[in-house]
Write a structure and sequence with these properties.
By secondary structure, this protein is mainly α. It is built from two helices and two strands; from the N terminus they run αβαβ. The two termini are about 15 Å apart.
Length: about 70
């Protein structure tokens, strides 16, 4: 998602809304589930590997902090 720095809170809020929507949906085969979301800012001239490493680190922080969370790695 492309967003200027001023929209960081909007992206975070979107992640929270997605988590909340998933948490209340009753999946036919799984019932209710939760999810964690990681968000990072794309920087030009950064390798794909570095980008994935940042978003992966944010996801581990989210999972370590509990279920149904959003973490932002800048």
């Amino acid at each position: 998602m492309k967003a200027p720095e001023t929209h960081r809170n909007s992206v975070f809020d979107l992640g929270k809304r997605i988590c909340a929507s998933i948490a209340v949906y009753d999946f036919p085969d799984a019932g209710r589930v939760t999810m964690s979301v990681s968000i990072t800012k794309y920087r030009q001239k950064v390798s794909r590997e570095d980008l994935l490493e940042r978003v992966d680190s944010a996801l581990y922080l989210a999972m370590k902090g509990g279920r149904n969370r959003v973490e932002v790695m800048t």
